[in-house]
Amino acid sequence: MSFFAIQKNTPCCVSSRDHLHKNRKYVIVALTQFRCSFVDGEMAANGNGLDKSFSTSLTCLPKFTSADVVKSVEINSSTKGNKLWIMSSWKNVYPLSNYQVALMAGHLFKVSSLATAVFATSGFYLYNRQMNLNDLSVIRFGRAATTTVLISFDYITAFKHVEYDTEEYWALKSKVHLRSAERLRDLCCANRGTFIKVGQHLGALDYLLPEEYTSTLKVLHSQAPQSSMEEIQQVIREDLGKELSELFVSFEVKPQGTASLAQVHKAVLHDGRTVAIKVQHPKVQGQSSRDMVIMEVMLKAVHWLFPNFSFMWLVEEAKKNLPLELDFLNEGHNAEKVANMLAHFYFLKVPLIYWDLSTKRILTMEFVDGGHINDRNYMKKHGINVNEISENLGKMYSEMIFVHGFVHCDPHPGNLLVRKCPRSKKTEIALLDHGLYQVLQPDFRLNYCQLWQALIKGDMSEVERYSLRLGAGDLYALFACVVTSRSWTAVNAGISSVPVTHSEVMCGHTHTYIDVEIQNNVAQYLPQISELLNRVPRQMLLLLKTNDLLRGIETTLQTRASSSYFINMSRCCLRAIARHNRSKDRSWRRHIQITLAESLDLWRLTMYELFLWVRGSVLGHWLTALLPFLH
User: With contact defined as beta carbons under 8 Å apart, do 31 and 7 qualify?
Assistant: First the structure.
């Protein structure tokens, strides 16, 4: 056996005194970090290369990361008289003496002994601290890597012996989708925290993922982990500096709700006020940044295996938004801002924030009870008008999106409650969880207004124009379908004039309306949709998620594509465009013209709304029945 040491800087040639012989094992010891590869040395010298079997039998050395790494290379064919070249930044190759080899062996033994001691000590420390192995990044990374490998291997091997586009192929593909979705769900439940948050986002991407994925991942909204009472007390003790008994008369052990990042408990203060206390899961803060790195590595690996799979935008958004969601003081400020911004809506209830009992990990607010906004049975029991709720929800979000550009981006049913106000007995919508807001830039917001105006009217030239401005490019048709969750036929005719058809029915048990054509052919459209999501501004991504969640609520309430929804949206778009035009023009005469034009357009919308109300009323039915007799 021959040993060689390699020193830094230039390409080198390795050759033992006996040259390289068949079935002789050569060991190269690397003294520091490098990468090398084997090439045909004689070809470089005189054009007569080594024989093919020799060239293919060599194994490339990987990138070493420790000080002394031993790598064996066995030569399996006759190579006498030839030389082995190592192309890298190394020079001065020389044989090592037995003494030097012994020194290196002793050094390796010391390093391995030290590593063993550290590992054993770490294990003893973790045992004494009773630390959960799930908190270790290596365990979390191992789970993610294993899941990624299993899912990738399944997709690579499952279809080898099945003919494409046959009934057997699509049945098998559905099974693979389901298996992969279940593995992904199990990973999210095991790693918890950030993984569940991202899994919930994926579950809302009906326009992008197959139905097997969305239906499987949607359960994560109801399977979020729950912290123990001891953990909750510890967070309160650390952040507020007091015990529960010092702060509250009563504190309910069972949480009112549990989410991926926190859970909410009901409590009563010493002055009698009932409050809701949102407490962050104790380990989420420390794990979140490492989890994002793990996800980024896994997604890059999958993208390398499957180039059409391009979900890096998801990681980018999560990296940007997660720190904001983990700062509960930021959430409190958002709540106060939206409450002031929409104060003119009598039906909107935003809980008051108690700042003296709030920190980055604890948010104490006014307790508001009610039923989930998609609970029709609750509304029926309490005499709440479903159509009124749907219309008010549309008003609220149209105002946020088109007029103010400050949008609550997590409107799932758990964050929207409906109730009768205890004092006024009027119907209210309570808006909760203000951690995730999207601030829309003025130009983006204006283009988005114009796009929706064109979609409502069915003006395809304007749809294309404003889709291009929003970055969709030649994918404007797909973009219009994704934004509206409607078929191209409905978009082309004007979504306000075409009711939701049978081809846009509820997909499976995902409880959302979406064009069946897109849902059933999502694998075919995946490259285009991925390309679209990578093109559009980052602001659009959370808006698409918000649109999907709102459409899901409207679907459950059976108020999808109602005329009042589009009228309210048009009204907000007109106001936003007029406000923008006034801000760009300093002439008072021009200001008057813009204001008059805005008032006229709003009056026309009001008249149209009145016409629709009369036509749908009992009086309208009577007039319709009398018209034939009048003729």
Answer: yes
Which of 40, 410, 433, 515 does the annotation list as catalytic?
410
Q: What is the pLDDT of residues 264-277, one digit of tens each?
A: 999 999 999 999 99
Q: Which helix (H) or strand (E) holds 87?
A: strand 84-87
* Annotation marks residue 51 as catalytic: no
Please state the pTM of the whole predicted model: 0.69
pLDDT digits (tens, 9 = 90+) for 335-368: 999 999 999 999 999 999 999 999 999 999 999 9
Instruction: Give the tokens for residue 345.
Output: 């809506």
Residue 340, C-beta contacts closer than 8 angstroms, at least 6 positions apart: none
Pairing of strands 437-439, 90-95: unpaired
3-state SS, residue 159: coil
Spatial separation of the C-alpha atoms in residues 531 and 524, rounded to whole Å: 13
Q: Give the length of the chain.
A: 631
Distance CA(557)–CA(215), nearest Å, equals: 19
Nearest residue to 41 (alpha-carbon basis) of 29, 28, 27, 55: 55
- Measured CA angle at 560 (ends 556, 566), to 5 deg: 145
In 3D space, the residue among 401, 398, 390 whose CA is nearest the CA of residue 427 turns out to be: 390
Instruction: Supply φ then ψ for residue 315, to 5 degrees.
Output: -65, -40
3-class DSSP state of 511: coil
Q: Which two tokens stand for residue 328?
A: 């509960």
294 vs 390: CA distance, rounded Å:
40
The three-class DSSP label of residue 241 is: coil
CA distance 338 to 328: 15
Tokens coding 536: 């559009």
Q: Which residues neighbour 380 within 8 Å (Cβ) at sequence distance 6 or greater?
A: none
Alpha carbon 330 to its chain's center:
20
Assign 525 a pLDDT band (cuts: 50, 70, 90): low
| Residue in the structure block whose two tokens are 């979000």 | 397
Pairing of strands 37-40, 84-87: antiparallel
Give 11-49 as a 3 state SS string.
Answer: CEEECCCCCCCCCCEEEEEECCCCCCEEEEHHHHHHCCC
CB 240 within 8 A of CB 361: no
CA angle 335, 340, 345 (to 5 degrees): 105
Write the DSSP assignment of 170-182 as a string of letters. HHHHHHHHHHHHH
Residue in the block written with tokens 């090398």: 36
Pairing of strands 348-349, 427-431: parallel
Four-point Cα dihedral 463, 469, 473, 478, nearest 10 = -40
The upper half-sphere exposure of residue 488, i.e. CA atoms within 13 Å in the direction of its Cβ, equals 8
412 by Cβ neighbours in 10 Å (0-12 / 13-18 / 19+) ranks as buried
- Helices then strands, each counted (H, E), the chain: 24, 18
Pair of tokens at residue 448: 């988005």
Give start and end residues of each alpha helix (H) in 158-261: 167-191, 194-203, 211-217, 229-240, 244-247
